[in-house]
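TASK: fixed-backbone design
INPUT:
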């Protein structure tokens, strides 16, 4: 975690590309929808754009799927199958904080490229200082882990230590002090070692004093705690890892899909662990059904995320051969040169960005990848109808002959149909019309909420299906104010 002391490139590129940016904005390029209207510039809207707050309702929809999964697992383990709200607010806030932290880290690490391609982004334009963005990332990650895991004894001191290092580097940049810069980097390195030690201690030791509990109950608490902790740490690692490697390899989209996969899993394990439903004995007796519940709905979300992520990287374009210098962001027209003609950096020591794009064979198979992303919804809809008629029953829900059962089947059918149509339209816009690519990607992101609605109906939760549809409307409305891509 370091801060580049040379931040003059932002102002230089901003003046050079201001005319081009205004022309693109007038044509709708870079907006989430055709009707996108930029709000009056203010610190509030700058932070909302940095957080990509318009897509936050899709995270809430993924959390809703986790809530439905928890109810289905409880029904499988012979617990009451009603929805669990104890601890729900904490884990949902943790998921939103983790999402915002990932967006902030992405803006920080991509600020050099944004200064060339998207100079009006909050960090690239200088409206939000880099040190302030690092502070927001550390604070959001701390909140996410504290609320998700349920403890702050070791997280908060480490976060405060990291903040000291960040602001020391910021002070060294302002004063041009090499001594302060070295102190800041050493401080952050020591903090990172402390984080690794804390993670090892957390995973290997008991979180509480379990001496007063019976052995079976102590083992149940220990198992639930570690399930929650491991899922949260995997989510944090996938989010941070994606931002660290996504400029080096296009295969980083797998980490982004893993992030979406883990959101409902984290919510489900947190609710089950805190309610005491994660009994190792019961789980071993019903392992196949529990694994199906924990893996299949998140897998559908991950497949759709993988599809839209590949499209967002422009790897689906057969003519995409662009490469940029990793130091200054200059476009490299000749792939055989060994040094950047703009800044003179050695391209062998610092490989250019997008130097390992997805293979042409995989690009040709993009329609098949899209079909794989859309097919689970149709299958889940068919399974939901079969479940309603009692062909196979995952949870105890009303029959299709009842009024609520019929409404649920109808809403699930409409949600699935709308999901497929909006995904196909968004995919077509992103692939066939470069000027409409951001709008198409934003539509694909919003479609996640409709996919979540179908998954909630499969898991037998009509009320959560309606909530996911409402999250889709909220996403599309917010994308008119804050660009979703």
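OUTPUT:
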């Amino acid at each position: 975690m370091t801060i580049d002391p040379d931040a003059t490139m932002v102002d230089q590129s901003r003046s050079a590309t201001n005319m081009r940016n205004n022309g693109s904005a007038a044509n709708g390029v870079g907006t989430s929808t055709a009707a996108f209207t930029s709000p009056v510039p203010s610190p509030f809207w700058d932070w909302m754009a940095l957080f990509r707050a318009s897509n936050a309702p899709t995270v809430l929809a993924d959390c809703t799927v986790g809530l439905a999964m928890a109810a289905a697992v409880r029904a499988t383990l012979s617990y009451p199958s009603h929805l669990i709200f104890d601890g729900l607010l904490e884990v949902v806030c943790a998921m939103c904080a983790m999402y915002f932290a990932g967006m902030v880290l992405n803006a920080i690490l991509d600020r050099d490229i944004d200064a060339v391609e998207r100079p009006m982004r909050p960090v690239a334009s200088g409206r939000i200082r880099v040190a302030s963005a690092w502070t927001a990332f550390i604070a959001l990650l701390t909140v996410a882990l504290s609320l998700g895991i349920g403890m702050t004894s070791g997280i908060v001191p480490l976060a405060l230590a990291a903040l000291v290092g960040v602001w020391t580097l910021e002070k060294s940049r302002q004063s041009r002090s090499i001594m302060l810069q070295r102190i800041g980097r050493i401080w952050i390195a020591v903090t990172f070692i402390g984080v690794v030690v804390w993670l090892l201690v957390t995973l290997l030791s008991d979180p509480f004093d379990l001496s007063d509990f019976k052995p079976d109950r102590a083992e149940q608490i220990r198992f639930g705690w570690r399930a929650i902790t491991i899922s949260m740490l995997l989510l944090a690692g996938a989010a941070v890892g994606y931002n660290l490697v996504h400029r080096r390899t296009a295969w980083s989209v797998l980490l982004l899909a893993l992030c979406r996969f883990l959101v409902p899993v984290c919510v489900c394990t947190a609710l089950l662990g805190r309610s005491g439903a994660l009994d190792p004995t019961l789980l071993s007796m019903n392992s196949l059904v529990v694994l199906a519940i924990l893996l299949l709905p998140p897998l559908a979300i991950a497949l759709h995320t993988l599809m839209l992520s590949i499209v967002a990287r422009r790897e689906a374009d057969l003519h995409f051969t662009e490469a940029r210098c990793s130091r200054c962001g200059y476009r490299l027209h000749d792939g055989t040169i060994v040094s950047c003609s703009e800044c003179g950096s050695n391209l062998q020591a610092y490989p250019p960005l997008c130097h390992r794009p997805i293979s042409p064979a995989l690009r040709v198979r993009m329609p098949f990848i899209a079909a794989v992303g859309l097919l689970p919804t149709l299958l889940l809809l068919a399974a939901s109808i079969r479940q309603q008629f009692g062909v196979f029953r995952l949870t105890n829900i009303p029959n299709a002959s009842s009024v609520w059962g019929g409404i649920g089947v109808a809403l699930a059918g409409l949600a699935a149909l709308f999901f497929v149509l909006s995904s196909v339209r968004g995919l077509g816009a992103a692939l066939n019309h470069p000027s409409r690519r951001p709008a198409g990607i934003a539509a694909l992101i919003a479609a996640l909420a409709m996919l979540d609605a179908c998954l909630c109906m499969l898991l037998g939760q009509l009320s959560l299906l309606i909530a996911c549809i409402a999250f889709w409307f909220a996403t599309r409305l917010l994308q008119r104010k804050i660009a979703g891509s």
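COMMENT: Residues 321-356 form one domain.
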